[in-house]
Amino acid sequence: MAETPPIAIVGMSAGRWDPGAESDQLIALRVAAQAIADAGGEQRLPADRQRTGVILGRGVMPEAPEAGIGLVPDLAASRLANRLDLRGPAYTVDAACASSLVAVDHAVRELATGRCDVVLAGDAHHCHDVTGVVVLKRFEDAERDGDRVYAVVTGTGVAGDGRTTAEVVGQPAVGVAGLVKAALAVYHGVLPPTSYCEEPPAGAKVWQTDDRRLVRRAGINAHVVLEQAAARAAVTVSEPERVLRLSAPTVAEMGCLLDRDDLLSDGESGRGRIRLGLVDPTPKRLNLARKVVAKGRSWRGRNDLWFVPEPLLGAAGGKLAFVFPGLENDFEAHADDVARHFGLRWDSPDVTVGGHGKGVFRLGRLLDTVLRGLRVTPDAVAGHSLGEWTAMAAAGIHADADVDALLAGFDPDEFKLPGLAFAVIGADACVVTKVLEGQSEVVLSHDNAPNQSMICGPSEAVEDFVLAFRADGVISQALPFRSGFHSPMLAPYLGPIREAAERCTLRPANLPVWSATTGERYPPSAREIRALFVRHLLEPVRFRGLVENMYAAGFRAFVQAGAGQLGSLIGNTLHDREHLVVAAHSAHRQGLPQLLRVATALWADGGDPAFELLPGRDGGKRGRTIRLDLGGPPLSLDESVWRAFRPRAARASTLDRIGERDPLAAELSAARQAPRLQPLRTELRVSVETMPYLLDYCVFEQPSDAWPVVPATTVIGHLMDFAEQAAPGGRAVELEDVRLDQWIAATPTLDVPVNVAPQGTSQAGVSLGEYSRAVVGLAAGFPSDRPRPWTFPDGSEQTPDLLAEQLYTERWMFHGPKYQGVEDLVAVGERHVRGVLRTPEAPGALLDNAGQLLGYWIMSRLSDRTTVFPVGMRRIRFYGEHPLPGERLDCVVRVVSVTGSELEADVQLVHRGRVWAQIEGWRDRRFDSDPVVRVRPRETRPDRGRGDQGAGRSGVSLGRRKGG
After folding, report:
1. Which residues share a beta bridge with 93?
2. DSSP reduced 3-state for 616
3. In angstroms, what CA-CA distances link 929 with 288, 709, 830, 957?
4. What is the pLDDT of residues 229-238, one digit of tens each?
């Protein structure tokens, strides 16, 4: 027996031979794919594929040796390595029945010598009706990488007596099948039954260890010794939960969908307003769904079922709010899996009572980030008690660092009030207030819901009230924490908190924040916000009034972004009205499964969450198949197997990197590959014949010098088009360092040289001669981490003194009809302007309209140098397909800086409530403006190459009024 370094078995699979298949190579390919998936997927393999080897045992059938002729057994390992892109040593060994264990022995040596970091070993042997593959790594590597280890190979040996047997002592199988069975026995601590002894046990029994036998060991006589992985916690292996989503135009048709035989064949079926979402559609839950649909009434959440005949969100117009909890009792932050899945930084916080304020805040902030990345965007945020601080940070009022610093200096243990305690009372606040009348020691601190209030005061006095309420049959309970918050007794201790709050920088909120002190939206001014911050700590939390007022303002869905039972207070308050409450954190399950339920609930009520970013996203039937064109019969791969080998696509965001965890070998998927960039040199012909819409973009009016030019935003579109030509199948989603150095005039005709030069795998430098250039980012799809739409506090803007149509009729702008898309001037502020755009037909005109909106701000707010032209943009990012002509968008322009020569602004375009494009660092060059310079009518002349098409049309151009 050879001594070897410890080798970990980190993945394995055994599959029965399909008698209808002709090639053991196909079976080996399937089983190897399953073994890699079981080991954690393709990302567990070394990045350098030459460090991964394949060694298979393959013996000729002893019963009929002639049957193996022509099967070319030595190609089994090579075929597997080729199809799975494994580039290390790949060869087949033949030792008859011992082949698979000889392959394991060779694999151990490949790992021990360091030539490979991972080796797939096993057999593809028809004489057994089992084909098996194990994934082997050095044990120290497996520990370092956090792999699941079924067992550790501590020794191997090969011996022969002329017969080369490979029997497992006491096991009914041979070779790698016995190895897999022994490894599972070691891993699960269960001795399986066996028939190879005089008195076989009746069934499996627990394999105990004790002080004398610290680990479990298993051995076989030809010859692999396995040992239990020491000090390794067992890992639960589970599949992502499936989600069934159905929609139908009527309740009756929904019932028909539920009766279909192929109900589970797709993750989403049907079309219609009425929706049903079901997590983990077991037969029992499906029966419940049928009963619920038969009744035709809303069902939200019980048994993980959501059925909504009248959705509250989407077209119904209901608003969504995130609600952040305050200090809770001890809780476990179930967020590790969420952070790993989305690639976010996260350290499980200290969440013990009295010192877990920062943990509550961090959990809320994490959930807020993830939910927004899942296309769950709130219309407002609110908080309960100190959860209001989290809401302020989520809305951008406080920087995260400021809140961290505030909480770091605020430890409730250090702010205890001697003898001051809390109790929860199961009664309406009005009832509690009446009972408290006539004394001043105990006060109402929380009005949580119609049947829940809280009181605060000295311990003995609070306990007396608790006993009195209980005597009247009211459920009451003293709480384990003490602080005095939300009571006037905190006032003498408020100094350090007030000072810390004063040091925090306040910024304009990017979405409304509602206060549980006033029951209204936060005020706009910094002075009022600071005053409310103090009131919030000294006055009762009136959460019930907050929920009532938000409901009256149109809020119908509430997502609890944190731990605790805050959602039950909302449900208690709104129990007789249609509403949705769902928690993004649960004490009873991990974070990702709970987020799956949040997405299902919101979808059923008319939302559009990004299921594709969550495990279990498709919810389809098990056992889906794809075809392998390998020259043999088709092979069915389990969904869990082929999902584990989806190829990585070029991604542009943190959330999109989730897709990298589902790699698929090229031959096993029809998924799109990342675009492959190639250099490109060509020309762009610019003329009014090839671009007739430029006749509506003439800077001057005089017949002698009418000058149609290519708008800067149209140039940007050409830069993107040429980048996509150089990357077939790719999509331009981002531009950086856009330079607009010279006008491109359309008369006379001009051929502009185009050059596309790859810069890495996903970027290309694109230039149009000496006129313009940019670095264009390409990907297989649009990024999903959309930013939040910008908002501005009340009182920070005014109604414009000009109608949008006057921009053109009174000739503030020189643009002709094909570039006239500013439909409404909504608001203007000291540093921003908002408007509504209707998408024009001309290429690039939509972004040009954003520039026109900026032009209005310049002319309305600046007194001189109001003639501007764009010269560059730092970054442009697109989050979806270009809107169709005629579609409306909200446009917001924020002015970043103004100097004598330049102006810089950021732009956001919002389509159907979601950001479609965002521009950072739009730079305009400012020029001297003459007060007599004004746009004037111009006639479209037939000599511009348009013939009768232009007859009778008129536009506007920049002109100079004659005669002073």
Report:
1. 57
2. coil
3. 72, 21, 21, 15
4. 765 555 555 6
